[in-house]
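Input sequence (303 aa), recorded before submission:
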Amino acid sequence: MTQTVPTLSHLDWLEAEAIQIMREVAGQCERPALLFSGGKDSICMLRIAEKAFRPAKFPFPLVHIDTGHNYPEVIDFRDRRAAELGERLVVRSLEDSMKRGTIVLKSPDESRNRHQSVTLLETIAEFEFDCLIGGARRDEEKARAKERIFSFRDDFGQWDPKNQRPELWDLYNARVHKGEHMRAFPISNWTELDVWQYIEREKLELPSIYFAHTRPIVRRGNGIVPITDLTPAKAGEEIIDLQVRFRTVGDISCTAPVESDADNIEKIIAETAGTTISERGATRLDDQASEAAMEQRKKEGYF
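Predicted structure, token format:
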């Protein structure tokens, strides 16, 4: 009798790889944690964790480093989703680091995005995490494309792209000495389009700002800047109402939307398939400076 072998889609293969990596973390590490911001990539990571470990609880807490300048729709979603899953959510704020004096802003309106490294490393030290699971993907920008799936960080939390471990035959080494830790990226091989197709397949809920909506903005250089209390219009700029959506979410001071009428998943997938600009290149105002600047941040402990 001939047995029919089921055909796996590319999403099946990517999901299976991500599940394997997450289970490797759980099996090799004593105190891992899953970074969860409420953004689309970390939402996919939650589903991967569900498939890897349910019906048991996750073998790690969820962690978010809050700049204090996040979009409220995303923070509300973060809290609600963690509560629905019944999982522990650890939130540490840059505001607390600023009060301790470990973060000092050059000016009150400086973007807090790059300062997240300080609070992140303080959180790792506080809980003695030996591995952080993140939703970074190699297609986001060139510095992240240099990451291994298991990324070694020294006892200062620093990343050295020339001092990483081989990952031949999908074998991973997560052993670290006290004070060192790993970063693991289960969806490294996914693209932005894969993420949206997975969200569609799994019927995952998202914060509303990922879908097209009308918002007051100004055009500044090549970008669109949303008008908020943190990002007011400058003298001479014209405020207009524009239909936009966010391809990625983060600190308000550096996360810009794109003009779009994609108000459902199907339209977003079609729009993503036709774009030639990476999501961070189009929407992260602070990442547009240079690849070297982003790589330097990563060396200092950034996500």
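Checked by second reader. The chain has a mean pLDDT of 88.
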